[in-house]
Amino acid sequence: MKLAILGYGKMGKTVEEIALSRDHDIVYISSGQLDINELKNADVAIDFSIPEAAFNNITSCLENGVAIVSGTTGWLDKYTEAVDKCKSESGRFLYASNFSVGVNVFFELNSYLAKMMSGLDEYGVKLKEVHHLEKKDAPSGTAISLADQIIKETSYKSWNHPPKNDETSIDIEAEREAGIFGYHDVTYDSDIDTISISHNAKSRKGFAHGAVVAAEWILKQKEGVYSMKDVLQLNSPN
Ligand SMILES: NC(=O)c1ccc[n+]([C@@H]2O[C@H](COP(=O)([O-])OP(=O)(O)OC[C@H]3O[C@@H](n4cnc5c(N)ncnc54)[C@H](O)[C@@H]3O)[C@@H](O)[C@H]2O)c1
Ligand SMILES: O=C(O)C1=N[C@H](C(=O)O)CCC1
C-alpha cells in the first residue's frame, strides 16, 4: 500500500519500521503543516501526531480521498464531527485509543467484568494508568475507553481525573514515570476483597503493528467509520 505517516515522533518512526518490514511504500511523511499534493499520493494515512493537529489531519485526508487510521489521543471532543465528515465525504476512517492486540483483548475483559460487577454494590471501581514522561495528555485515551466501557455496563455515569473519591463516578489516576510504554489497571475493591485486571506494554511495537494492520484492512473495506473491534474480530464473550 502507499502509506502517508502523519506525525514523525516516537510512534511515527515505529510505524515506519513496521510498514517497511511489511513491504509497504511510504510516500509521504509529515511532522507539521500538511502538503496536500504530497498527501494525495497515498492510499491511506496513519496519524500519530498531537491533539491540536489530529482533527485537521483527519479531515484533510477525508477531503482528498485518502483513508485515515488515527491513533492520536486527546482530541475526542471533535470525534462526532470527524464521523460526520467521513460520512459526507464518503470516506474511510478508523480511530483507536490503543491499537495493540493485547489491549483490545483487555477491553473485552474489562467490558465482561463490568457487566458481572454491575449488580454488586459492595464494590467500588477505580482505574490507573502509567506512561512515560513525554506523554502530553492525561488521562490516557486507553483509560478513557476503559472508563466509557464501565459506564456503559454499570450505573456509573462519569469519570474523574484527577480522582475525587466520589462514589458515583470512576476515579482515574495517571502517573508519569520514565521508560513506561503504557500500563493500565482496573480495580474493584470491597471490604472483603479486591479484583484487579491489568495490561502492561513492553514496547511501542504492538501499537504500531496494530495501526499498520488496520491500514491494510481499511483499504479492503468500503466507505465507513470503523474501530479495532471490526479489524480484530476477537472471539469475544460480549
Ligand atoms: N492509539 C495508540 O495505540 C497509541 C499508541 C501510542 C501513542 N498514541 C498517541 O499518539 C500520539 C503521538 O504519540 P508519540 O509518542 O509518537 O508522540 P511524539 O511527541 O513522539 O510525536 C508526535 C509528533 O507529531 C509531530 N507534529 C506536531 N504537529 C503536527 C502536525 N500538525 N501534523 C503532523 N505531525 C505533527 C511532532 O513534531 C512530533 O514529532 C499521542 O497522542 C499518543 O497519545 C496512541
Ligand atoms: O505513549 C502514549 O502516548 C500512549 N498513548 C495511548 C493512550 O493515550 O492511551 C496508548 C498507549 C501509549
Automatic annotation (TrEMBL):
Domain (Dihydrodipicolinate reductase C-terminal): residue spans on this chain: 102-232
Subcellular location: Cytoplasm
Family matches, as CDD domains: DHDPR_N (cd02274)
Active site, UniProt feature: 131, 135
Name of one Pfam family that matches: DapB_N
Amino-acid biosynthesis is among the record's keywords: yes
Start and end residues of each Dihydrodipicolinate reductase N-terminal domain: 1-99
One MF term in the entry's GO annotations: 4-hydroxy-tetrahydrodipicolinate reductase
Top-level taxon of origin: Bacteria
Catalytically driven reaction(s): (S)-2,3,4,5-tetrahydrodipicolinate + NADP(+) + H2O = (2S,4S)-4-hydroxy-2,3,4,5-tetrahydrodipicolinate + NADPH + H(+); (S)-2,3,4,5-tetrahydrodipicolinate + NAD(+) + H2O = (2S,4S)-4-hydroxy-2,3,4,5-tetrahydrodipicolinate + NADH + H(+)
Keywords: Amino-acid biosynthesis, Cytoplasm, Diaminopimelate biosynthesis, Lysine biosynthesis, NAD, NADP, Oxidoreductase
Residues the record lists as binding NAD(+): 35, 71-73, 96-99
E.C. no: 1.17.1.8
Chief localization: cytoplasm
Record-listed (S)-2,3,4,5-tetrahydrodipicolinate binding positions: 132, 141-142
Pathway assignment: Amino-acid biosynthesis; L-lysine biosynthesis via DAP pathway; (S)-tetrahydrodipicolinate from L-aspartate: step 4/4
Job description of the protein: Catalyzes the conversion of 4-hydroxy-tetrahydrodipicolinate (HTPA) to tetrahydrodipicolinate.
Annotated family: Belongs to the DapB family.
Assembly and binders: Homotetramer.
Protein name: 4-hydroxy-tetrahydrodipicolinate reductase
Species assigned in the record: Psychroflexus salinarum
Originating gene: dapB
